[in-house]
Design a protein that fits this description.
Structural class: mainly beta
Order of helices and strands: HEEEEEEEEEEEEEEEEEEE
Strand order of the largest sheet: 1-4-9-6-7
Number of helices: 1
CATH class of the largest domain: Mainly Beta
Distance between the termini: 82 Å
CATH superfamily of the largest domain: Jelly Rolls
Oligomer: single chain
Number of domains: 2
Length: about 250
């Protein structure tokens, strides 16, 4: 049996076509590899993502204010530290984890989330899809060690509602007060972040001190370094909503 030269299997035109196919496949493979490399290279640290504006950093926590109008999307960004998130507006958005399924759905003002990183960094991007702009305050826990032990028995519902519990890094509460309503005395531990979800005015009364007034504006927050016993009261004419997160 004689061997047939490869060039004679389909004639010169066929061989030229085969070469072209090989060339196209080579280009496609190169392009796919380049696209994958570009996708990997486009992942940025959360601190470098342009929509994450740093509003506060005390070495313990770092606060990012993220605001997106409809159709805007963040870059893929990487969280290497545990973080809490507090939604500031009721709207819709898409959360797309890297190598994961897109999650499209509503979010509600006052909603609290937690993203752990014990098993590795969390990488994702957010796209705003609602008519109301998307806004979230993300609190990154810069310290890997514990800042406190938390207090479990001084806040009773109502008006306190536990938003995140059984969490090794912190506990979140939602507080809703009607006009003239008070919390009663409770203990706020050191290393607590307070977030205003709504506008309004509250007073904070501690033993032996004059009441302190706080004019609320959605998206404002503050950090407390010392523990204190206090009473909060709604001094305005509309309901107020606050989220407090005790960092452990």
């Amino acid at each position: 049996m004689s061997m047939v030269p490869v060039d004679n299997l389909c004639g010169r035109p066929c061989c030229k076509l085969s070469s072209a196919v090989v060339l196209v496949l080579g280009v496609f493979t190169f392009a796919a590899s380049a696209a994958n490399a570009q996708s990997t290279d486009s992942i940025v640290p959360v601190s470098a993502e342009s929509n994450h504006r740093i509003r506060f950093d005390n070495g313990k926590v770092r606060m990012y204010d993220v605001q997106l109008s409809k159709g805007n999307v963040t870059a893929f960004h990487e969280h290497t530290k545990d973080s809490f998130s507090v939604i500031m507006a009721t709207t819709t958005r898409v959360n797309q984890p890297q190598n994961g399924e897109r999650v499209d759905g509503p979010v509600k003002a006052g909603q609290v989330g937690y993203a752990p990183t014990a098993k590795g960094p969390y990488t994702h991007r957010i796209e705003a899809t609602g008519e109301t702009p998307y806004r979230v305050i993300a609190m990154e826990l810069l310290s890997d060690g514990k800042l406190g032990t938390g207090i479990t028995d001084s806040r009773r519902s109502p008006p306190f509602a536990v938003a995140v519990q059984d969490n090794p890094r912190g506990r979140a509460y939602r507080v809703t007060l009607k006009p003239g309503e008070s919390t009663g005395t409770f203990e706020r531990p050191a290393n607590t972040a307070i977030f205003a979800i709504s506008g309004g005015r509250i007073s904070e009364l501690t033993d032996g001190q004059a009441p302190r007034l706080w004019d609320l504006e959605a998206g404002r927050f503050r950090w407390t370094e010392q523990s204190q016993k206090l009473t909060m009261r709604n001094e305005g004419t509309t309901d107020v909503e606050i989220v407090e997160i005790e960092v452990f």
